[in-house]
Amino acid sequence: MLGLILVVDDDPDMRLVLRDHLEPEGFEVIDAANGAEMRAVIEQKKVDLVILDLQLPDEDGLNLAKVLREKTDAGIVMLTGKGTSVDMVVGLEVGADDYVAKPFKSRELLARIRSVLRRTTETRKAKTGSGGSVVRFQGWRFESAFQRLTNPQGEDSVLTAGESRLLQILIDNVGNTVDRDTLHREALGYDMQASSRNIDVLVGRLRRKLDSDGGKENLIKSVRGIGYEFTGKIERE
Q1: Which of 7, 163, 171, 172 is deepest in the core (most CB within 10 A)?
Q2: Residues near 171 by Cβ (< 8 Å), separated by ≥ 6?
Q3: How many CB atoms lie within 10 A of CB 128?
């Protein structure tokens, strides 16, 4: 089995379609029709990835994404029926790892799922290993294996897999500009499409977490037309 996937969608036909796509590929699939059923599943099972519909009748999918982030380390791929950039950006803002717009192509969905699972699996392996690298900069402490970012006041925040990989890439290239295509490919696991804003949303989320102590210093600098650069002074433990 390649992983346990939870499908959360109120449409029984969509749940069946997703099951038919995923089970022949080697995934175990369970489903939930609403937020209450989703909560029951994650209390009982260790889920590897959740495919979460943005539009649910009983509870906003965005709120459920926040619940998943608090309760599990599962990857989150959000489905949006509207397919607008606003829906996609908001989904990423609340912690989803990726999104797929309906109607979707099965090959694209599988590629996104495998990419997210690869990132979350690498993170889990690091947690059970040596602990990964620990980096300090401007009073901050970053533990990549645990996706943990600690501010100068000692307060922790947990990064998503994408945020953690993005920060690690920027730190590894400190003082140098990393182009958006490379960041997208390395942090999210697939090539960036021409109109994609995913990496910009990810950078924005990471910047807000790095600004949570009220500091005015912007540690991630935008380089117009190219990408982003990390400007902090690095100390490795």
Answers
A1: 7
A2: 135, 137, 142, 230, 232, 234
A3: 8
